[in-house]
Amino acid sequence: MSTPAREPQQERSRTTRRRLIEAAVECLGEHGWSGTTVAVIAQRAGVSRGAAQHHFRTREELVTAAVEYVGAEQVTRLREYAGRLPSGESRIEPVVDMLLNLYTGPMFRAALHLWVAASADEALRSVLAPLEARVGREAHRVSVELLGVNESHPGVREMVQATLDLARGLGLANLLRDDARRRARIVRQWARVLGTALPEPGSAITRPTDITMPTP
Amino acid sequence: MSTPAREPQQERSRTTRRRLIEAAVECLGEHGWSGTTVAVIAQRAGVSRGAAQHHFRTREELVTAAVEYVGAEQVTRLREYAGRLPSGESRIEPVVDMLLNLYTGPMFRAALHLWVAASADEALRSVLAPLEARVGREAHRVSVELLGVNESHPGVREMVQATLDLARGLGLANLLRDDARRRARIVRQWARVLGTALPEPGSAITRPTDITMPTP
Prior knowledge:
By secondary structure, chain A is mostly helical. Chain A contains nine helices and no strands. Chain A is elongated, with a radius of gyration of 20 Å.
């Protein structure tokens, strides 16, 4: 792993693996779980079936790798985007914009096919449920970091969770039509709500938050 | 329609229709769109294939009727539940609780199968997209009514929309595991936020709301 230049075969193997994973995401989005077999994925990736099965024995293994890949890609892109943002209070709207647009692409479509299939398939569910929980926790952790909030304040954790649940709901709403305009208005409003409900970035620890219970 | 007691045949026909629709919802949730044919639905409903096709020529027609049925059922249940709630400010939490639990049952699972299938099937999408928009508008209208809010205030419309999008995201999160405990905490938090951000029920028209823009 440490000297890829000296190991072209290992490098090639990584490329093959990555192409299989990307083909799996595309297949899932287009044909759903029932139409996604190792053979179909291999063909799409331009890889022999034998080579594909050398990397992944079953489609469950391949899909596990795909979900991990998508999750890691997402976190990487979030971090890159966040690195270009200004610091301070003005971060909230661009961060919310980024988070609420997280599930509007082809990767979410692929994941949705998987979730729906897993809801009726015990074996797939047992693979997917813990994986999805882990990817979800990671998305949550990065969101907390990007919003610059402190989860020890009451209600903050739930607001970050609600932001990601809302993002997935908006992903659903975008499935059958282009929902970008309506979503943009919700982004603006949600950023306002979070700006009021969450402690300002940087002041999370020292300043009491106005999110504490309004009723006893 | 007005004298069902005198028209047992018409009554029987309605019962058959309803059984077919209910069987369609069950089939979709269990086998997805690809496994849901008029023949499979008819068998499940205990109706001959000929009788089924007398009511619905294609599975698209049957599924259209199913989506309309599910939407109407939902609105009816929302109204019934809301009718039993106390009036005044204390309505917000039970209404939010009801709305955020709206998509956690088998009907949402069935709808999800359809949406996902429609995202890769032009013919199904052209049937489903306008229908889904109509059912969504109706859910929105009832939510506005139950929350007792006034959409002419800036941001209120988006807050109600966000509540329903959040509800669908929570439905997704509930697909692979029982997410009820986490959801209950989000319900409490979201009710607090809405209680602060939305004008109180009954005062929507006369009182200015604190949801107006915090920034220019």
